[in-house]
Amino acid sequence: MKILVAPDSFKGSLSSKEVLEAISEGIRRAIDAEIVGVPIADGGEGTVDALIFSSGGKVVEAEVVGPLGDTVKSFFGILNDGTAVIEMAASSGLSLVPDNMRNPLITTTYGVGQLIKEALDKGCRKFIIGLGGSATNDGGAGMIQALGVKLLDEDGKDIPYGGGNLYKLKKVDISSIDKRVYESIFIVASDVTNPLCGENGASAVYGPQKGATKEMVEILDDNLRHYASVVKETLGKDFSDVPGAGAAGGLGFSLMAFLNAKIRSGIDIVMEASNIDEKIKSCDIVITGEGNTDFQTAYGKAPAGIARIAKKYGKPVLILSGGLGKNYKDLYDVGVTSMFSIVDKPMTLQEAMINAKKLMSDRAEDIIRIFISGRNSK
Predict the structure, then answer these.
(1) CA-to-CA distance for 365 and 248, rounded, in angstroms?
(2) 20 to 30 A Cα–Cα from 30, which one of 242, 246, 311, 370?
(3) For the whole model, what pTM was predicted?
(4) Res. 377 pLDDT band, cuts 50 70 90
(5) How far is it, in rounded angstroms, from Cα 316 to Cα 343?
C-alpha cells in the first residue's frame, strides 16, 4: 500500500513536518506501507518549510522589529533557484503577541520590510510572501517604511507605527525607496480575497481576532481608507478594492501598490512546487490534517485543495484535525472521505497542544487499522 501524508501545520503546536512525522509513525505501527511525505502550507505558517522541502534551499535567520516594535528573532527561506520565501507571521504574526497585549492600533509590519531588505542583500530578486497569521492592521505601512518610503505627517515627520496612526498621514514620499524592489518580482501567497475597507475589509473581518474592539474596528477602517486615498494621490493608482488588498491587515494592499505584487493562491503555489498532483495520482490513500477543521477549510485551506485533486483521481482522503468545528461536513462535498479529531478524551486546549504529537500518531494508527480491515473484508 502506498500512502501519501500531506498535512498542514497545527498552529502553536506542531509544524507541518512534525505532523508528517507523527502520522507516519502511527501508520508504521499498523502496516508496512510505502509512505510518501509532503509538508503542506497555504501561505501561512509552514510555507517556508514546505517550499524548502519540495524545492530545496536553506533557512536564513534574522533579527527584525516585531509587531510590538521590539526586536524579535525571525527567518526567511532561500530556495535553490534564489527565490526568497517570507512568512509575514515570522516577523509580524499574532503568535508573537501575548494575548493580553493584542492591539492592532499599534502593531506594525516593519519587520516584513526588513526581511525583504535582508533577502535583497543576499541577491534575491524573486519573492514569495505568505500573508497568513498577521497581528497587524497597518495596511503594510510599516513594511514600506522599512523599504525607505517616507510616510509623513503635516509637520513633515514620519508617522509612528501602527494602524491607529494612519490618520496622521499627509504625504507619501517614495524617492528614497530601495530601488532594488523595482528589479524584483513579488508573488503574494494568500487565499484571502477581502478588499481593504468596508464590511468585508481587513478591519471588520479580521480585526477582532487581533484584539480589536468594535470601536477599534471603526477607527482602523477609517484609517485604512485615509491611507489608501493618500497613496492614490502619490501613485495615481487605487488598489483598495482589488481582491486580496485586505489580506494580513491590508499588507496585500501595499504589496500591490508599491511593489507591483501579484496575488496567487497560497495552497496552489505549495502544491505545484511539491508536484502533489502526481503524488496523489499514484497513491492508494491520502492523509492530511490541520489544527482545526470547519466550513472555512473549504475556502483555500490546504486539506481542501488536496481533497479536490484526490476527488479527480478517485482517491480516499482522510483528515486528522485538532478539532472538528462548525459545518465541517461541508468538506464531504469537495472530496474528503472522512474526518477525525485526534483528541481521545475531554481535555483543555493546552493539554491537546502539549500532547499533539502522541495524539496524532495514535489516531493515525487507529484509522489505518480501520482502513486495512475494510479493504481486507472485501
Answers:
(1) 37
(2) 311
(3) 0.89
(4) low
(5) 22
